[in-house]
């Protein structure tokens, strides 16, 4: 969906009249200026902020129900959409900003199949998409287990998302029994007894992960809806949770 919208924007840019652009370099770009420069594109300018690229601002533009990061020169002369890669840190900055502009609605993620780690009365909720046959998922599980022992105000809802085909049956067996013990057994490398049930939770989780743009495990959905892919040590994860509390 994200890439399709970027392609649509790229095609629309070809239709913008040349006289719309100014040759005078402006020191900065305001939201009103960006809206004027981009008035030929069907969308709404939501935000404007400095970008990592000198002379360009990053514009958040709502198109087809999603907010897309675009890069507009402060003079209004140049606009591009697409992936900006930070080579030093090996990060896709455009994808990162897209996630920031489009937080996940936590109440739209079903938790009836989730395994919960922590107090049911905890006020800070974090959702974890994890794979029982994933080494980094296992490491993260140990981290969140320690966190809930120290922080009764935090609960982790674990959604089994076996991106590896080899772990599909294991994940389904765990969901059928809704067993945290079996999940921890899987994370330890031990075999999990095979169980069959009529649940379609695993298939639904895989579909949901794809819709949310989750490409790897573990991935956390923080209290404010921001996605945080990958393993993090305890102190770093706690800091991340504190910085992304629900508004």
Give the overall average pLDDT: 87
* Rg computed from alpha carbons, rounded to a whole number of angstroms: 21 Å
Return residue spans where pLDDT drops below 50 for at least 5 consecutive residues.
Answer: 5-26
Strand portion, in percent? 15-25%
Total domains, how many? 2
Please give the order of strands in the largest beta sheet: 7-9-8-10-11
Shape type: elongated
Secondary-structure element order, as H and E? HHEEEEEEHEEHEHHHEEH
The total of beta strands comes to 11
Helicity range of the residues? 25-40%
Structural class: alpha+beta
Distance between the termini: 27 Å
| CATH homologous superfamily (4th level) name of the largest domain | Glutaredoxin
């Amino acid at each position: 969906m994200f890439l399709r919208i970027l392609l649509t924007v790229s095609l629309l840019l070809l239709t913008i009249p040349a006289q719309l652009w100014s040759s005078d370099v402006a020191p900065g770009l305001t939201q009103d200026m960006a809206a004027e420069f981009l008035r030929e594109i069907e969308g709404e300018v939501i935000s404007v902020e400095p970008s990592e690229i000198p002379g360009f601002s990053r514009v958040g533009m709502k198109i087809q129900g999603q907010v897309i990061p675009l890069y507009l020169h402060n003079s209004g002369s140049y606009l591009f959409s697409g992936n900006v890669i930070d080579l030093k840190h090996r990060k896709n900055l455009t994808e990162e900003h897209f996630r920031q502009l489009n937080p996940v609605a936590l109440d739209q993620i079903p938790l009836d199949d989730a395994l919960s780690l922590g107090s049911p009365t905890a006020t800070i909720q974090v959702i974890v998409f994890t794979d029982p046959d994933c080494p980094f998922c296992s490491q993260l599980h140990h981290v969140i287990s320690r966190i809930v022992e120290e922080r009764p105000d935090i609960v982790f809802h674990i959604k089994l998302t076996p991106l590896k085909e080899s772990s599909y049956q294991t994940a389904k067996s765990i969901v059928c029994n809704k067993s945290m013990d079996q999940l921890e057994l899987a994370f330890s490398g031990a075999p999990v007894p095979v169980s069959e049930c009529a649940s379609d939770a695993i298939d639904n989780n895989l579909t949901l992960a794809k819709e949310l743009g989750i490409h790897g495990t573990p991935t956390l959905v923080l209290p404010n809806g921001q996605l945080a892919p990958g393993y993090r040590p305890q102190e770093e994860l706690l800091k991340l949770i504190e910085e992304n509390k629900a508004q």
